[in-house]
Amino acid sequence: MDSVAFTPGDKATRYRELLPQLRGLFDGEHDLVANLANAAAAIRACVHKSSWAGFYIVRQGELVLGPFQGNVACVRIAFGKGVCGLAAADRRTVIVPDVNEFPGHIACDAGSRSEIVVPILRGKELVAVLDVDSYELGAFDDLDAAGLAPIAEVLGTLAW
Ligand code: SME
Asked: Would you tell me which of 32, 134, 141, 159 could form a disulfide with 49, CB atoms 3.0–4.6 Å apart?
């Protein structure tokens, strides 16, 4: 059977559809862990190339593993370390097309090939990063960054 070829439009559409889905999941529910757990599951399902999707939460000056979907992962990451630590320190989205080309990449899963990390801000405060990994090289591009930006905004409104 031929595999389904997704056009860039499909990817953008899927991210757009994820927004109301997340808003619906969060509606009337205040619990942060419950909401992040559902968000991780929804993002993992939306991003077809993802092997892992989840959160690292800022706790006392470091990043600590939060709700996720995928294989077990490293628990603590210092600011500035790895892709997550860089995104947190610089408060910017980081796309790594080939993790083997990224000095200091933290390999939680030896199969991981590419990664995108998006900071989550509550107002001006960095509260977490969203990390999405893939077993495919070059799985993430500017469309993913653009699609995940409004999702990170909604996530920033949760009860951190
Ligand atoms: N690869 C990440 C660490 C987190 S795991 O991929 C889930 C990094 O370099 O920050």
From this structure: 134
